[in-house]
Amino acid sequence: MKITEYIYDHTKNPWLGGGGAFITQNVCKYLTQKGHDVTVVHGRYPDSKKTETINKVKYIGLGSGISYLLSRLTYTLQANIRLLYDNSDLIILNNTPFSPFIPLNNKNTITSIHNYFGSTNIKNYKLIGSLLFLIEKQYIKRSRHIITVSKTLAQKIKSVNPDCIIKVCYNGIPDFMYLNKKKEDYAIFAGRIDNIQKNLLFLIDVWKSINKNNNKFKLMIVGSGKDERLIQTYIKENKIENIMIKQRVDQKALSELYGKARLFLMPSEFESFGMTLIEAQAAGTAAITSDLPVFKEICISNSAVHLPLEKKIWEECIISILDQPEKRQEIEKHAVINAQRFKEEVMTEERGKRYLETAKEIGINCCSH
C-alpha cells in the first residue's frame, strides 16, 4: 500500500521538533517494515534537504526554510496543492490551524490531531486568532476518520464533530529514557520554547520569587523554538539569576538531564498529551504540572503534582518538595511506574495498527507492496 503522511514538523526542525514529528518518524518506520511504501511530506527548515530517505521512508521537504513564518506559509500552500494530485492509497493529514488541510476526499484520508487550540487562538492572536479558530473548526468538521493522542483531546474533538470516528493512541517514549541518576540541585523544564502554550514567563517569575529565599537551586530550560529571544531578553532585563538555558540536545543527553534534576516543571496553558512529562517520569524525576485534565488522565495517582496556575501556590509547592526529600522520593517512585505504561515500541505498533485498521474500515486494500 502506498501511504503518504503530511506533517509540517520534522525531528530536526529547530522551530518545533515536537512530539508529533517523532511519532511520525517512528510509525512510518513501522509501516515500512510491514512492507508498505511510505512517504512523509514536511516543511523545510534551515539546511534541510528537499528529499532524503531515512529508515526506508522517503522524506520530501516543501516550502522555504528561510524563516519560521515563511516556512509555515509556503509549506501550507505547496502541500495543499500537492494533496490535490496525490494518488496514494492512504493519506494521513497531521492537521493544525497553523498548517491546515481541509480534507476534500474522506475516502482515503485519516486526520491526525495532536492539539486542539479552540478559543485559545482568539485569546492570544486576536483578529488572526479568530481566523485560526474558524480554520480549526472547519477541518475537524470535514474529517471523518480521526486519530488523536488522548481521551481528553478526543472529547474536545467530538464536541466539534459528533459524527467523526475517532481513535486514541497515546504517545510513547524510548527505552533509554528509563534511568535513575544521582540528583543535583536544579529543576528542569524541557519542551518547545513557546510561551503561549508552555507558559514559560510564568515559570520564570515563579523562579525569581524562589531565588529571593533560596538561591541554591537552579532552573534549567531545555529546548528551542520561536520564543527563545523573548525568554532570554526577559531574564536579562529582569536580572533573574540561577536560570540556565540549553538549546536542542539529543534524547540521550536529555534523559541524563531529566535523571539528575530534582524536579520537572510544566506549567502549560494547554496540552494534548505531555511527552516531556512522561520522559521525566521515566528518568525517575518528580513532576509538578498545571492542573490540565490531560495531565490527570495520563498520570496515575500520586505520580505527579497538579496545581492551578497561581504563582504563590507554585512557589510554595516547589520549595516544599525540594525541602522534603522523602516526599519527593515517594512521587518519584510512582512516576517511574506511571511511565512504564508508555513504552515507545508498544505505542508505535498500536498507532500503526490503528492506521491499517482504519484503512480497512474505509475500504482500502491494505496489501503491502
3D structure, described in words:
Helix 1 packs across helix 13 (344-362), helix 6 (200-213) packs across helix 11 (311-323) and helix 9 crosses helix 12 (325-339). The longest helix is centred in the middle third of the chain and has 22 residues, at 120-141. The termini are close together. It is built from 13 helices and 14 strands. The protein is an alpha/beta fold. The protein has two domains: 2-172 and 344-362, Glycogen Phosphorylase B (Rossmann fold, 3-Layer(aba) Sandwich), CATH 3.40.50.2000; 175-342, Rossmann fold. The relative contact order is 0.13. It has helices at 19-33, 68-84, 120-141, 151-160, 195-198, 200-213, 228-237, 251-260, 275-282, 293-298, 311-323, 325-339, 344-362, and strands spanning 2-6, 37-43, 51-54, 57-62, 90-94, 109-113, 145-148, 165-168, 186-190, 218-222, 243-246, 263-266, 286-290, 305-307. 44% of the residues lie in helices and 18% in strands. Helix 3 links the parallel strand 6 and strand 7 (145-148). The chain has an eight-stranded mixed β-sheet with strand order 3-4-2-1-5-6-7-8, with helices on both faces. It has a six-stranded parallel β-sheet with strand order 11-10-9-12-13-14, with helices on both faces.
